[in-house]
Amino acid sequence: MAGIGLSDLGSLVGDTLRAPRETFARLSAWRLSVPVLSQALLLVVVLSVLLAELSNLMVSYLHPPGVGVMLLSPMFFGALQLALLVGMLFAILLVGRALGGHGDLAGSILLVSWLQFIMVCVQLVQSAALLLVPSLAWAIGVGGLVLFLWLLTNFIAELHGFTALGRVFAMILFTMLGVALGLSFVLALFGVTVPA
User: Fold this and answer.
1) What distance in Å separates the CA atoms of residue 156 and residue 159, rounded to the nearest whole number?
2) Which residue ranges traverse the bilayer (predicted)?
3) d(Cα 145, Cα 18) in Å, to the nearest integer?
4) I need a labelling partner for 97 at 20 to 30 A (CA). Which of 61, 67, 83, 154 fits?
5) Is 72 helix (H, G, I), strand (E, B) or coil?
6) How much is the pTM?
7) 186 pLDDT band (50/70/90 cuts)?
8) pLDDT higher than threshold 80 for residue 62
9) For residues 18 and 119, what is the distance between their CA atoms, to the nearest angstrom?
């Protein structure tokens, strides 16, 4: 991976969209170490924060005067995103292993890092649409969510050696539901209520 260039990254992104499971298998075959993958995870978080800041500036510019846009500080947003991604990678690892998968920590970090990089690419396209064709930005966002779930399902199946994508997708939904309920319970303990 040391000599990878922008054209190689572009090819990998295209291959991921066409054949997500096979492309993730190729990436896994590189056998990158946990420290290297951790740096990659930090890098994609930084890229995501920078792009989010750029999008916020564009939204502020496109808004009429006097209309404010609520923004999180870049440091807080980056820390929050990193925490969510780390939680996600451990959920993928532990739930998958509990269900008979054979994924490891390095593979989980690779999965989350590459998936987040693809989402950064979608974010870039959405930012361009926001500037050029604002009406398309929402549709790209919805398409990005569908793409996220499709890639996540395929990546998890490849990481853990699962064959039934439907079961993997159901596992993702149940895990998300469980995490949401758990967070709601913890917040309730501290007296925080989430509006319906």
Assistant:
1) 5
2) 40-63, 75-96, 108-130, 136-156, 168-192
3) 17
4) 83
5) coil
6) 0.85
7) confident
8) no
9) 15
Q: Are 145 and 176 in contact (CB under 8 A)?
A: no
Type of residue found at 143:
G
Closest CA to 41 of 112, 127, 130: 112
| Structure-derived torsion over alpha carbons of residues 113, 118, 120, 126, reported in degrees to the nearest 10 | -160
Burial code of 115-128, b = ≥16 C-beta within 10 A, e = fewer?
bbbbbbbbbeebbe
Cα 177–89–107 angle (5° rounding)?
135
- Count of beta carbons in the 10 Å neighbourhood of residue 158: 21
Q: How far is CA 37 from CA 19, 95, 116, 133, 187, in A?
A: 22, 21, 13, 36, 32
pLDDT at position 55 over 50: yes
Task: Output the six-digit token pair for 169.
Answer: 């997708």
- Distance, first Cα to last Cα, the chain: 46
| Sign of the Cα pseudo-torsion (169, 99, 23, 46, in order) | positive
CB atoms inside a 10 Å sphere around CB 18: 9
